[in-house]
Amino acid sequence: DTCQLYMDVYMPDDTLSSHPCVLFVFGGGFKSGERNSPSAVAYMEKIAENGMVGIAVDYRLGLKGVETTSLVELAKVMERAVNMGVEDTYSAVNYVLTHAAQFKVNPSQLVLSGSSAGAIISLQCDYYLQNRHELSKVLPANFKFGGIVSFSGAIAAFNGKVKYQQQPAPTMFMHGTKDKLVVYNKLMVFGKGMFGSNALAKQFVKNRWPYQFIRFTNFGHEIAVIGYKEHADAVV
Description:
By secondary structure, this protein is an alpha/beta fold. Helices cover 34% and strands 24% of the residues. Strands 1-3-2-4-5-7-10 form a 7-stranded mixed β-sheet, with helices on both faces.
């Protein structure tokens, strides 16, 4: 569509020509949120202070103003919202790769990081890439994310269970074990659902894929924000 999307770039104060990059996708239930909220700004500044480029990006809010009356309808609008977020994040990634020299970013060290809805988008971006999903074909051939950092995220399953066809990027999960908004484990209804951090981590363990899981026992969805507000050092 014709909306304009923006990104804020936070540069480290050094003379190096190439840096790792952490691209941040904000949360808000696909209905709200801002790339330049105070907590997002502080997170990106922390990244830049530690010698990396921080980039906070916009994406279209696919559930803003949307009303649903049934589970079937909700599944359809949710798939649309997730895919819109993925499309816009891929667009932002392509922009960063095209301007890598200007932003002083190492294209092989681009880490995707997200909170809540942004964490779903981040995990979904890598999942689609590893499964050769049609949306992922806009990325350069042979591109791989340097890593994924998910604050209370999940992968949306629209056609059965989540199964990676190729090894995912090294992934850091942070999630509250009592999260009621984005499931910690998994939830499936009529072949559609969400695979949360714990369900995904089991696949990483089984396949010996590199990952880190910081579990917040008896915490809920507040970890979506607490994760990057109070535990940015772990990300660094």
